[in-house]
Amino acid sequence: MKVVCTEKSQILAVRIADELGVQVADTRFARFPDGELYLQVTEPLDDETVIVGSVTDNDAFIQLMLLVDACETTTNTLVIPYLGYARQDKKFKDGEPVSARVAARALSRGVTDVITVNIHEKDIAGHFDVPSHDLSLATEIGEYLKGRNLDNPLILAPDSGAADFAAEIAAAGGWQCDYLKKTRISGEEVRMEPKTFDVSGREVVITDDIISTGGTLATATKMLYAQGAAAVHAICVHGVFTGGAYVHLRSAGVKSVVCSDTIERACSEVSAARCIAAALRKC
Which of 1, 36, 47, 85 counts the highest number of beta carbons within 10 A? Predict the structure, then answer.
């Protein structure tokens, strides 16, 4: 077995290979003069190949499909740590594509299994034409937070839909967990506060699968401080951070912003490698 990867997932791929005790095959990337992508796996592959690539943008999507095709002589397991296009998982208006279905079908060709990590909607797994397995980094995030020595933290989901994920994280340290409840004060004013617990004097950790623009999280942070929180931290699986979101969150008073290496960032302090390697051993 060998591991190959796209440009956007080099660090995670090496970590996965180290966990498995296998080599990473060297791959070269370039562009043609007209902007088309080119790649070449420059060394022979074994009978089994693990292909690692997050779909963070259009180039990463095309590059991942090219890499799968380059590995056509082997049996391939595809690891998609972050799957872009997953948000458009249904038709919201007439004439729209189901983008998640398009992406899943395109990435099913040439592989025998697919592994994803905290995919945005569980139903997307059904769009792959091969067996797929979605992993959760809740335990890894919980273990990371245990090492931060936070003082009696409240693990807080941004809404009820993310409450189960927050509960999994909280279980690692035996912490309390809650989710933000929104109350409309007027046509323009909304109050956000934990549904059950008082944050006064407590450290709060807001958790979610994705932080994209960070707008809601920044607003919630300011309200939590107004309610007496001692500190607010943010941690997620996929750190998209569009439109200056990281700086926006820090300016709003978020003491620390952490993500995993499903999207490789300077603040990727949680690794998905061990979780993915364990799943690969079962495939």
Answer: 85
